[in-house]
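Supplementary Methods. Inverse-folding protocol.

Structures were first reduced to a C-alpha cell string of length 314. This string, shown here, constituted the complete conditioning input.
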C-alpha cells in the first residue's frame, strides 16, 4: 500500500492502493484504487496541461493522424448516434436543445439535429473539423469545455466517452452543471471498469485517466448536482450509460464504504485465461472477424448516401 499526496477527485481521500504498474501496451503506468470510495485513476493524476500535451502529440499517433475520418469510422459513429437517440428518446421528450461535449467527428450532433432537435457541440481536437463543417454541416465549435461561460444554454448535455479523459471529472461536471437549463438533463457513457470487457493487462490506458464503476460514476454525478433518472446498462456491460437530471448542488459526503473491495475483486476476477475462454468472447470474436469485410464494403455506400442527403437538405 502506498500513500500519495494526491486527493481523490470523488471522495477527497488520500489512501490509494496500486492495482496495476503498466498500461495495455506494457508501458509503465501506475494505476491506483482509492480505498475510500473505489475510484480508480492514474497516480499521479496528470494535470490539464499534461493532458493537453498528450492529445497534441501521442493521441494523434493512436489514430494515425487521420485528417479525413474513414468511412467505417463515420458509419459507426452515425449508427452509434442512432443507438443513443433510440435509447434515451422516450426519456427526453421535453428536450429541445442538445449540446455535446467532445463531439468528435460531429455525427451525434448531426443525428440529433436530423431528429428535429436544436443540436450543437464542442470538440477540442481540430483534426476532423473540416469534415464536420463542410461534409456533415454539424454545428460543432473547436473549443475546450472551460472556454465556455458556465451559463445555462441547453436542455441536455451529452458526454460520450469523454469523462474518463478529464484531469478532474468533478471540476468538469460542475462546469457542465452550469451549462444546463433548470430541469435539464445530462447523459453520460464511459467504459465500465468492473464489467468483464478486458483482462487486467489490457485494461489501463494513458488516455483514460479515470476508470469508473457504475457506483463511482453515479456518485460523482451526485456530487456535482445531478440525480440519476435511468441507467441503460447492466453491471456486466462494457460501457456505463446513465441519464441524470440537474438538481441543486448539494454537499453530501460520498457513501461508498466497501466499494473499494468490490472494485478490486472485479479487477482481479477476469484473468487472461478465463476471459478469453468465455463462450461469449469466442462467438463475439468470430462474428467480429466475419463482419469486418462486409462492414468495410457497406461503409462506402452508407457514407456516400448520407453525405449526399445532408448536402441536399442544407
Ligand atoms: Zn475516493
Amino acid at each position: 500500500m502506498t500513500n500519495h499526496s494526491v486527493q481523490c477527485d470523488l471522495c477527497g481521500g488520500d489512501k490509494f492502493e496500486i492495482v496495476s504498474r503498466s498500461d495495455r501496451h506494457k508501458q509503465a503506468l501506475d494505476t491506483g484504487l482509492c480505498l475510500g470510495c473505489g475510484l480508480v485513476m492514474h497516480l499521479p493524476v496528470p494535470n490539464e496541461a499534461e493532458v493537453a500535451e498528450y492529445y497534441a502529440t501521442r493521441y494523434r499517433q493512436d489514430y494515425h493522424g487521420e485528417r479525413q475520418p474513414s468511412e467505417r469510422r463515420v458509419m459507426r459513429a452515425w449508427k452509434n448516434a442512432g443507438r443513443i437517440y433510440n435509447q434515451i428518446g422516450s426519456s427526453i421528450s421535453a428536450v429541445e436543445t442538445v449540446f455535446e461535449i467532445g463531439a468528435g467527428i460531429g455525427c451525434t450532433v448531426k443525428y440529433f439535429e436530423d431528429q428535429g432537435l436544436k443540436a450543437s457541440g464542442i470538440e477540442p481536437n481540430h483534426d476532423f473539423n473540416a469534415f464536420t463543417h463542410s461534409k456533415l454541416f454539424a454545428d460543432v465549435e473547436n473549443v475546450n469545455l472551460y472556454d465556455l461561460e458556465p451559463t445555462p444554454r441547453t436542455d441536455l448535455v451529452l458526454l460520450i466517452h469523454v469523462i474518463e479523459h478529464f484531469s478532474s471529472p468533478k471540476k468538469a461536471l460542475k462546469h457542465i452543471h452550469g451549462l444546463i437549463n433548470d430541469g435539464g438533463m445530462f447523459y453520460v457513457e464511459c467504459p465500465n471498469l468492473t464489467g468483464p470487457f478486458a483482462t487486467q493487462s489490457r485494461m489501463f490506458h494513458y488516455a483514460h485517466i479515470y476508470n469508473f464503476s457504475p457506483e463511482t460514476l453515479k456518485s460523482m454525478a451526485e456530487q456535482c448536482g445531478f440525480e440519476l433518472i435511468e441507467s441503460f446498462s447492466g453491471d456486466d456491460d462494457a460501457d456505463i450509460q446513465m441519464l441524470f437530471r440537474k438538481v441543486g448542488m448539494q454537499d453530501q459526503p460520498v457513501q461508498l464504504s466497501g466499494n473499494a473491495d468490490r472494485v478490486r475483486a472485479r479487477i482481479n476476477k477476469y484473468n487472461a485465461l478465463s476471459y478469453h475462454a468465455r463462450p461469449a468472447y469466442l462467438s463475439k470474436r468470430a462474428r467480429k472477424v466475419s463482419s469486418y469485410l462486409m462492414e468495410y464494403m457497406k461503409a462506402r455506400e452508407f457514407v456516400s448516401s448520407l453525405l449526399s442527403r445532408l448536402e441536399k437538405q442544407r
